[in-house]
């Protein structure tokens, strides 16, 4: 089942790529959860590792797992960043942000020598756009920003949580954007980030180096 697939790919990422002495970007979400748990076991077995968390939720989980956290500003670059994705296509273009952590995730993925995505079988798509694209916007004038985003041909919805507007770890809002299909994600990524009020969007273009996913019969696939 899906949870089992998340565990398989998450643990595979840790055991195959995490080496003693590394500094690792720690992803956010239910798949990255298994990576972090496995890293905690490796530390208990004697490995020395440091982590940079992509969200406050991941900071909490990492501390529970005994991973020493450092501030992203203390390092030039990370050895690895390992994170989930909401969808990923054959070009390794990915949509992220389902968990609301896309800004820190993108900063940390950018800072890593190697960026690894761990994804259960449900995440692989022919082309992006099945999953509503999360866009982080500043709260001031967010309705203006939302109207400007809609001009790109999508339906927009301000993300809510428990009946309130969801606020990211950075104090911003998320606009979830439903496109019928995304033909040119590279162009869209640039256009969206040019909109006044947009902080960052969840299109990860030319960023993913390794995809660890599931082939049929629960076989793990590692693609470069
Ligand atoms: O919010 C995010 O970007 C998460 O990584 C998300 O894309 C994957 O979450 P999941 O592993 O819980 O499906």
Radius of gyration, whole Å: 17 Å
N-to-C order of helices and strands:
HEHEHEEEEHEEHEEEEHEEEE
Q: Which hetero ligands occur in this complex?
A: D-4-phosphoerythronic acid
Q: Output the number of helix runs.
A: 6
Tell me the major beta sheet. 7 strands, mixed
* Terminal Cα span: 25 Å
The beta-strand count equals: 16
Mean pLDDT: 97
Going across the biggest sheet, name each strand in turn. 3-2-1-4-7-15-16
How would you describe the shape?
A: globular
Fraction of residues in helix: 25-40%
Give the amount of beta strand, in percent: 25-35%
Please identify the structural class as seen in this structure.
alpha/beta
Question: Which stretches are poorly predicted, pLDDT < 50 over at least 5 residues?
Answer: none
Catalytic activity: aldehydo-D-ribose 5-phosphate = D-ribulose 5-phosphate
InterPro entries: NagB/RpiA_transferase-like (IPR037171), Ribose5P_isomerase_typA_subgr (IPR020672), Ribose5P_isomerase_type_A (IPR004788)
Protein name: Ribose-5-phosphate isomerase A
GO molecular function, one term: ribose-5-phosphate isomerase activity
